[in-house]
Specification:
Structural class: alpha+beta
Radius of gyration: 23 Å
CATH architecture of the largest domain: Alpha-Beta Complex
Number of domains: 2
CATH class of the largest domain: Alpha Beta
Number of strands: 13
Mean pLDDT: 92
Strand order of the largest sheet: 8-10-7-11-9-12-13
Length: 368
């Protein structure tokens, strides 16, 4: 009986099917991460196949190359410029009310892309694991990343895993990078502010910082505050649709609202005046800040953005934001003024003004 030769076995459907079955059968049998899971051998392959490929499964990732290959034609249908960002996440604790390090890593990178006016498309995922980390903890974090990526409409298409000795890290660190495409005609930049522009925030400030502080269990405080960790790309779409001439956007993460606005004022060489009574902060967050001597203007957020638009478009943008689930509590909180340049002022409830400076030091380390 003659034998059928296969010129390119790797491309033959039978061999591809066998490889798919082999990957599905790869399982992590250890209960905790060992140095072998970062060695490049079978234990590492099992970890990648079982936890990462099994969770993030998509056509780009499943190729298991050292990089993801994206057709340029696909990107060009979305816009005319590429947005590219990266961020690392070292939050403590890993799990907190309203989220965890996995959701934080996805939403944080999605939001960094979105506030440039880009449509987020593809993300990377690199993890540094400490020897001894529970495999179930890792699996839970990865599943959370998958849920967050699906909610934001992005794909995790490539990544990397490293394992360090016990005591050389704190359980789990994540780095995510992302690319998106900026739609034609949109130009969002901190250098675009003009006197008369309106300053809008999409909701309550300080929830993430307060939630992390309580979750650390170092204070005898009880509260129902949850992190505002969420993707903002849908809200940005609503803003851009209402006002393609949007001048600036930024998510108010570390350093909070005050730091973002100071960066805007310095970049555009203008002043910004805030109205204290218009700034939304939960009473619980205010109470925590009063007890600890913190200022909610500097607390980290993970689902809040600041948007600067021409005054003529402010009401239409505000209405569009309030119609979106992540912007229901949006408010106009101030305006851009010609002077003093590079300074943010707060008009208090007593009619006086004070300077709101950029954050000096760190109120709460390892917040994201």
């Amino acid at each position: 009986m003659s034998e059928t030769s296969i010129s390119n076995p790797g491309q033959h459907p039978l061999f591809q099917k066998i490889e798919q079955v082999r990957r599905r059968q790869s399982k992590v049998r250890d209960t905790h991460i060992t140095l072998a899971h970062g060695s490049g051998g079978k234990a590492m392959r099992d970890l990648i196949d079982d936890i990462f490929v099994g969770s993030f499964d998509n056509s780009l990732l499943s190729q298991l190359e050292d990089q993801a290959t994206v057709p340029l034609a696909t990107l060009l249908t979305q816009g005319d410029r590429l947005a590219f960002t990266t961020d690392s996440y070292v939050v403590d604790p890993l799990f907190f009310p309203g989220g965890d390090i996995g959701a934080l890593a996805i939403n944080g990178t999605v939001n960094d892309l979105a506030v440039s006016g880009a449509k987020p498309l593809y993300l990377t995922c690199s993890m540094i694991l400490e020897e001894g980390l529970s495999v179930n903890t890792l699996r839970q974090v990865v599943q959370s990343m998958k849920v967050a990526a699906d909610a934001a409409g992005v794909q995790i298409v490539t990544g990397d895993t490293k394992v360090v000795n016990r005591g050389s890290a704190d359980k789990l660190f994540i780095n995510t990078a992302g690319i998106g495409v900026i739609r034609e005609g949109v130009s969002v930049s901190a250098r675009n502010l003009q006197p008369g522009d309106a300053v809008i925030i999409n909701g309550q400030l300080g929830d993430h910082g307060a939630a992390i502080l309580i979750a650390r269990g170092e204070l005898a405080l009880e509260t129902e505050i949850k992190s505002d960790c969420q993707p903002l790309n849908g809200l940005v779409d609503a803003i851009i649709n209402a006002c393609p001439e949007t001048h600036a956007m930024r998510d108010a993460t570390r350093g909070g609202l005050a730091t973002v606005l100071n960066e805007f004022a310095l970049s555009s060489d203008v002043g910004i005046r805030l109205h204290e009574e218009s700034i939304p902060v939960r009473e619980e967050v205010k109470g925590i800040c009063e007890i600890l001597g913190l200022d909610p203007l500097y607390l980290a957020n993970e689902g809040k953005l600041v948007v600067i638009v021409p005054r003529s478009h402010s009401e239409s943008v505000l209405s569009a934001m309030q119609s979106h689930p992540t912007g229901q509590d949006a408010r106009i909180i101030g305006e851009v003024i010609p002077s003093p340049p590079g300074i943010v002022l707060m008009q208090t409830g007593f009619g006086a003004e004070r300077i709101v400076d950029m954050l000096v030091g760190d109120q709460l380390p390892r917040i994201c």
